Predict the structure.
Amino acid sequence: MVKETIRVYARVKPLGRRQQAGIYSIDDDEKSLSTLEVIVPHDLADGVVNNKRESYKFKFQKIFDQEAKQDVVFDSIAKPVAECVLAGYNGTIFAYGQTGSGKTFTITGGAERYSDRGIIPRTLSYIFDQLQKNSSKVYTTHVSYLEIYNECGYDLLDPRHEASRLEDLPKVTIMEDPDQNIHLKNLSLQQATNEEEALNLLFLGDTNRMIAETPMNHASSRSHCIFTIHISSKEPGSATIRRSKLHLVDLAGSERVAKTGVGGQLLTEAKYINLSLHYLEQVIIALAEKNRSHIPYRNSMMTSVLRDSLGGNCMTTMIATLSIDKRNIDESISTCRFAQRVALIKNEAVLNEEIDPRLIIVQLKKEIQELKDELALVTGKQRTSELSQEELLRLDELIETFLKDNDPDGTLDVGTDMRKIKYCFVRMKQLMNHSKISDRKWLSQDTCEEKDTSKEAEELKKMKELLQQRDNEINILVNMLKKEKKKAQDALFQFNAASIGMPCAVPSSADDYYLSVGENMSLGCQEAFEVFKRDHADSVTTEANKQLLKERFAEAKCLGEKLNEVRNKINNLKGKITQRRIQNAALAVSSPSEELNMLDPVEEKLRMQIEEEKQSYRTMFNHLKGLKVEIEHLQLLMGKAKMKLQKDFEVWWSEEARNLQQEKPEMVSSPNTTTVHPQFVKSSQHLSTQSFSETTSVIPNEDPAGKNNSITSNNPTLKTRIPPSLSASIPLTGDSQADADILAFIKARQNILQKKGKSCQEMGSQT
Ligand code: ADP
Ligand code: MG
């Protein structure tokens, strides 16, 4: 590894004919370094006293003055680098300076004289000369020629193209591998086996470069050109290859845009050039700084390509080309300043050695064969790479025996043959893997089953939830139905109540009135209701009220008629009075007398009569008003009574139905069919009236006929409640609703009869 700073040289271009020389001096006194002093002349226009510096001093490895010849420059600058490259290190020589300062002349050379050949042809010549001289190594030489213009790379050596423009050349792009090595895609590497071939390639590249350049587009001064010589070397029989490359770089003009005074396309170019050189400067500043971790190589293509040359594995040399005429002093100073910074950069060049895998394979094969021969010699057996079929079978048996052996000290002895040992390991691994897989299968099956059960449980849970939901829904619907039913009944009540509130709608009889209530009932229910209402505790009062209402109606009707009569009478009397007055008036006209002015006794009498009639009218009217209040009150009472009756009936009915529901299974299970006399069912009216006396005398438990009663039931309540006089054989239909109705009817009737009996007894005791 060679660690050294970038070597920096300066070359001063000879002055042109019309150029006025600037003042500079070169001090070569020091042993290792030369000093360039640039004197900035006093500008009288700035006044006598100004602060401008007059002298600038820059140190270089060596400074080549105007007279320096190309061969000297080559020997001093390029030859040591070429030697390093031949030794296996990377090398770079780049020329930096303003346009026209001699970069191309230095790197490539002048076109006129052979002696003006630049570093590239001389290096090529030198390298091939050295290669020829050194026959101990095998060398391979390739060259590539890259032009970077406006941040685009072009391959100048592509033989397939005859470029008339730069854009026609293959575009080269940068690729970076995981190890951050830069690779130039599309850049052809042309093999050059001798100096002539290499020079031809250089000529091809320069021609392409020249053709691509037009008077409008001075690409050569605005582009960077990198000619690279790739050398690989190895000693015969050695697997070690040394690869090295030498970049010979002709950079674009470093002049500042402001000074060029260009615009449009040229300005764009200048910007690009300046930008890439600016990035080069950035890289160099970064490299010159200590402890700087990030170096901005990627900012431009040129710095990316020269990555190794700058701060990497490379021996790098810079030539600062200076055009020291009066006009270019500033640019020259700028170039020198840049060079001073570059001089601070330290590079670490390492020998690029790598092992050729093909050669290693050949070597190893040879080694193996030698070892085999040796082994055969020792064992007396020629060893093949494969085990025979019999050997394999024998090994399988041994493995099986070993695995089945329960003895912890059991061993598997296959000898010292590595092939056999390896086979045993491989076979055992296979067996282990196989058992693992089958275990896993079992495991997965188990988990599948578990999954299935959990799935089923989950479904069951869902179903249960659904069922619960449905139950809830049904309950809600049932409740709703009940409510609806109640509403309908209430509505019915209200309707009926409203109808009795109207005098004209008052039913003519109690039967009419109650019939309307039971209209929506089933037949059995209606019959039960008929009986129930007749025997209801309030029925007497209701009947009395009804009677009273009837009477009051009749009375009111009578009164009304009488009132009408009185009114008519009064009107009649009034008419008479009017008539009388007319008569009197007519009489007064025909025979006026004083008497006429006196009160008419007839009229007076009529008036008296009217007053009397009026009095009676008032009395009757007041009476009628009282009657109306009474009637209205009675109607309200009856409405209430009706509602109470309906409610009582409903309560009773539902109670009976519930009892029946509980009794039913026993009844059904009874072997004796319950029978009722047909007339009992047919005529409730008859029963309700005739049964009174019978019921009163009946004490169910004492009734001897009860035992013979064809209505047999295990329910004592039912049994006792049915009066013996009603003994009947009731044909149950089998239809639960109908049977329930029938039985309810019977029970209802019994209750009513009992109630009637009680009230009669009370009445009897009262009287
Ligand atoms: P650059 O490449 O920096 O723009 P060139 O190398 O093209 O400049 O030089 C400009 C001109 O000056 C060319 O005609 C070239 O021949 C000439 N020239 C440059 N350096 C020298 C030198 N050292 N000796 C003689 N002529 C030179
Ligand atoms: Mg040039």
